[in-house]
Structures
1.
Amino acid sequence: MTENGDRARPPWTVLLVVAAGILSGAVGIVYAVSLIVDRDDASVQADTGLSSGGLVAYGIGAIAVGAIFVAVAVWLAGGSSFARWTVGWFTLLHLFQGIAIVFQWYDVSAWEGVTSIVVSVVILYLLFRAPPTRAFYAKT
């Protein structure tokens, strides 16, 4: 809060993470809807290894996860410490996933792992070490 009782405006560091969260959630929702729409397409079933019912279930779950991403991002902009720590923990998990990919524990390109590591480190820095962010969460 500011001196006159208004809510403090989030700094650019928080807004950048919020925008990434909203974008990620929205893309996840669009992807999920496309799975549900294309659930009877034989090539989609072959690519995913899921049946029509499995694609619907996966799509519904992915819509829920995307909606949660968007909600947490909005709460993050409002100064929620819970949202900040939630994003931090999930980003830490994403960092560990990137390390696993780099060491070939998953069958994908090592560059995907490097990208995950770099993005995770940047997000963690922006949320917990960047001076504008620390000042913002100290006030809320």
2.
Amino acid sequence: MKMTKPSKQATGTLIKLVISFIVVIGVYILIIRAQSMIGMTVFYSLTGLLLIACVILNGGLNKDIPTPEMLRDSWSEQKKQKFIAAIVKGKKLAKSIIILLLPMLVVVMIDVIYLFWLKDLNL
């Protein structure tokens, strides 16, 4: 099987994701070291809000973009094009949010695993 080079866009996204992981983990460690309950509450709340925003902007779990024929016949062509453009814009914004959201979800998942299962093992 022939290996292809990753595109510049994929490489850029990977770099953004790695930087996002470093920043999110750094912020989380600072919050833990400061023993700030308000900081933890804000971190968890922001994670939840970003998750909800991502789902709403992405149109749920649907990845398809409707064609003009799929929309109501009573709509004008201009309204259909505006609707489709808004969906595409929302999906692009959701993709940007995911780059920040993914590291936050991983940190929350590790924290919950530690708090509910590993803390009792005195690790």
3.
Amino acid sequence: MKKSNFIIFIFLLLSFSFNNSYSEIFTGYLKIDSYIGTVKDDGIERKLYSPYKIYNQNNELIKESGYHFDRPHTLELEEGEYKIVYFNSEYLKKEILCKVEDNKTTICTLN
């Protein structure tokens, strides 16, 4: 019985080591500060953040945000450069490039 347990253990150990051959993905964080002012919501004053869209290096839309309250969004993204498209306070379309690095937080302020 002990010999069969040992064989099973070796089999599991080998299959585990072969199944873990993967390419490592590096991720970081992107904090989007799109603060535009405060609003009253049922008597409570709340911070208002404007909408934006995030595109990857292939110009593919990966995130779209509407107006949101209270705090800026923080997203976990793969390492790389991202384009953020938004409208400024004069309603002009703007673009900004932000670089996400492994295990770091990049803050992009939209104004």
